Structures are given as structure tokens and as C-alpha cells.
Structure prediction request, 98 residues.
Amino acid sequence: MNLCDYLPVRPLLVGLPRTAERIGLVEMLGRQARSMSVKALVTMALIEALASAFTLGSWLLSPRPNPYVLTGTAYFGLLTILFLAMLFTKLKAQRAAV
Prediction:
């Protein structure tokens, strides 16, 4: 995802001076959560959870389980946690605003 953001912006940044300021991961994810709708966050979390369950199920039902499949399961599981955290952060911010 970062590469897709980086490539179009890179030509615009060529002549600009470097800065010492950095955007942390938590701040970046917070901004991303604010820009996405609740429906989009729920959809992404559901897709990642289903992908994690599917890869785990295929690993469990495989006659010769491949350990690399568990890597995909862990990856999708972490993405599920990420999108759920973003969703809960957005819902908490919406409640605080009311």
C-alpha cells in the first residue's frame, strides 16, 4: 500500500529539501482510519478475517501441510487486527465527538 502511495508522489518531492519530521505508524494509521468510512473498515476487516480462516482451514485439511501457508494465515490475521483496531479507533472518535 505504501508503494502505491509513494510512486505517484515521488516526482513531486524531487526538488524539495528533506525534513527531520517523521510520521509515526500510529499517526499514519489514525489518519487512514479517519479517511475511511466505517463500512469500508468493516468490509476490509471481514475480508481479512475470511482470508485468514480460509488459509488456516486449507492448511488444516491439507494432506501434507505446508508451513508457508501458516505465514499467510498470520499475515491475514494481523491485517484483521489492524483493520479492527482502526475501526474501533474511528468508532471511539465518533462517540467522543457526539
